[in-house]
UniProtKB/TrEMBL annotation:
Its EC number is 1.6.99.-. Keywords: Oxidoreductase. It comes from Streptomyces smyrnaeus. GO terms for molecular function: oxidoreductase activity. PANTHER family: NAD P H OXIDOREDUCTASE-RELATED, NAD(P)H DEHYDROGENASE [QUINONE] 1 ISOFORM 1. This is NAD(P)H oxidoreductase. Belongs to the NAD(P)H dehydrogenase (quinone) family. The lineage of its organism: Bacteria, Bacillati, Actinomycetota, Actinomycetes, Kitasatosporales.
Amino acid sequence: MAPRSPLTTAHSPRALLVLAHPRADSLTAQLADRAEQRLTRDGFGIDLLDLHAEDFDPRMTPADEPDWADPEKPYSPQVHAHMARVEAADVIVVVFPLWWFGLPAVLKGWIDRVWNHGLAYGGSRPRLHGKRMLWLSLVSYGREQFTELGWDQVVSRTLREGISGFCGIDDAVVHFVYESLTAGQQALNTVDPALDEVLPPVRTGGT
């Protein structure tokens, strides 16, 4: 892998940490907490978006349905507020369990409503280009079986290319935490290597 270029920013780098699990004591939440600790230690300001705790409504409404003929369509205030949080982040980290080989409903709905036409893609300016993104997914399968079945490629392509890449985020990584039902606390050791794949060195000021 080629060396990552540093983030050049006049402000403290920002990370949007998205958590998608209904239980605050879940392993998913513990991994998000470990990621927050690491990001904080590396000097990132953290915007923690706990979709369940914030009671995000994943259901699409007519107000937020994309109008393919109008990329400047104004969506609901909630959608614009969430999109502002995405835009403000230099790094986006999404921590979630893989359910039915896809995103949990609340996370899928967040993508559907917030990463919308004219906002995340199809607009007059590239809002998300240059950001870095980590999809950190917990799966119950072991690595060998998951890979033999080909799900690693299917899920990775959907997230890295179908969502991140489609919205202009070329520097996106998908990292799986295997055997999540039995891994216990040792799963926390996977967070730092996963973040190492996406976090750049940070350069704050100067040239």
